[in-house]
Amino acid sequence: MAEIKKEAAEGSSTAPPPTERGKNHYKNRAKKQKRNKFLKNAKSFGKRESFGRGAELEQTEYNYLVAILETMTKEKDTEERQLIANNVLGQLKGKEIRTASNQVGSRIMEDLLAYTDEETFAGLLETFAQNFRVFCCDKFASHVLQRTLYVALLRAVAPLQADQQGEEDGEGEEQSAKKQKVGGAAERGGRSVWPCYEYCLKEQYADEHRQTCRQYVERMAKYLINNLEEFVWEATAGYVIRQCVLNLGGITEKKATNDTKPLIVPEQWHKLLHEFNVQLMAWPQFADLIGMEQTATILQDLLRALASTDDAFQLEQLIAKLFKEAFYTKKVKKEEKDNEEATVKQEEKSDLPKAFQSDSSIRLLEVCIVVAPAAFLKDKLFSKLFRGHVKQLALSRACNFAIQKLIDHTTDKDMMDMVFAELEDSMEDLLRTGHTGVVLALAKACARLACQQGKFVKNLLDALHCAEVAPTKMINAVLHLLPANVTPSTAPKIHLHGSLILQAILDFNKPIKFVTALLEMPNDRLAEILSEPAGSFVANAFVSGRFVGEKSREKLVRHLEGQYAQLTLSVHGSRVVEIMYEAGNPAQRENIVRELAEQCERLNGKPWSAKVNKRLLVDLYKRNPARWKVAIKNDAKVEKMFDKLVGGKKRKAES
């Protein structure tokens, strides 16, 4: 009996290896759990005869909505979604306001609106237009109002996007997927399993319906402009104003990103956006708007929307007014400051301009930096607000992001020299405080503007105490952003900013020190670095570096020989193998494939390894190397012809 137990224990100890997960596995699982949690809570509220938060519903109405919510959590095709949307909103006719003011009803209406037919949606728009004030001031109904505005925007402007859509069709799958993801960011928290961005732009609607949607957007904008002094201080109405301002500028996502261009919108909408701007600037209490997070975010979105319209005059007017009345004021004495809680220490703030006295003003200043014209950025924002305070701000927990934005958007070498002069002796302090983003911004700016590169490398290596150490220690110090003389208790992971800094350095005019160090590292340690998510992109930077020689690239391909099979077994390492294959000469390519052929059966066990095998024709090489050479040559010719047909863009190695 004891022997049986021992055998069972031994059998249980040999557990199967952990399953490799996709990069979005945990994020998607968290979203699904959150959706299920909302449904679970809705059911439990119903059992306790508490029919949701917000407006009270009757039990039968609430149970009906919960049943619909449960149906909606499952994946449906477009026709099923349209059918559900029209049926449910038909059942709710006459009860739209009360349903939208309930938490469960609000969530359901948000997701269904995009899939309604023309007649149903037009009826809803009229109902909402007659009750703007009710919807604006309700914490749940305001979300539905934002969604109607968003859907109306997409339906109204879809025909104007024909040229932009043609450009997107020529892009790769990765780019189009990114656009879809960004476009869907306007949905509440990105939690919806019923995405509407792509659907609304591609679905065909009658011209009359599109005109109705356009008139709704304009009617809502005029209503908000007329009631701006009241609504700008309301928490729920403030979100509606932000959504309206962004949409008038063609921006569909609330989070600022540089991945997508704004949608093309009618010229009349730009005029309405300018009305928002003129009315806000005319307020006597304009300077007070930056003191509250709620009102400051409206100004942030207004700046972004104006920047998207390419109206430099209106944009500079607003930035200049903010600079004069809100940012650049006399320095505040410590005893004159109020006792409001802030993230920056009081003694730190005593000699700083007003722009750095609160979180809301700092975030607003960051947006100004992003959208300001280059001359205004240098002559006003930098000279009056930042100059002489760069080091202090970079070491501040609240203000270091503003310094990063300033460096990232610097296009003038003289200005960059002045910023660097204030920071060059602070590299070690920045790393010690954990403000590695400032160091990364400096590295990128040095590469972009081709200035201060030698000084940056020297200061970085001195800060990490690795100027005179072995190549492996130097590379590890940069990747981990830990001094070479510090021995951590556990093996550190590659720091994302460390990897990005190394990638930026490989784009410098003279990256020879780091190129040599990478080539002198033991190839097993180098392969280990390139197998990690952050480390794998070092291979991209090495191969695409403008000043990394062809011989150095071939040396790297040769240096990794013997490690390619091991690299292919990991998700990120398999991508590196394809990059090295593209960078190598014909003889080196054959060596890579020969090495993979020896482990062919093992590699086919993983999807990413099998993908590499298929792309490089490893199975064919194993059977007949001579036929492989012919097939590879033919594939190269076809690829060359394909590149000419689609405009000369080189196919990505991972495609």
UniProtKB/TrEMBL annotation:
Residues 165-174 have a biased composition (Acidic residues). PROSITE patterns: PUM. One of its GO terms (molecular function) is RNA binding. Transmembrane segments: none annotated. It holds the Pfam family PUF_NOP9. One of its GO terms (biological process) is ribosomal small subunit export from nucleus. GO terms for cellular component: 90S preribosome; nucleolus; preribosome, small subunit precursor. SMART domains: Pumilio. Residues 24-39 have a biased composition (Basic residues). Residues 1-39, 163-184 are annotated as: Disordered. Pumilio repeats lie at residues 384-421, 559-594. Keywords: Repeat. This is PUM-HD domain-containing protein. It comes from Anopheles quadriannulatus. The lineage of its organism: Eukaryota, Metazoa, Ecdysozoa, Arthropoda, Hexapoda.
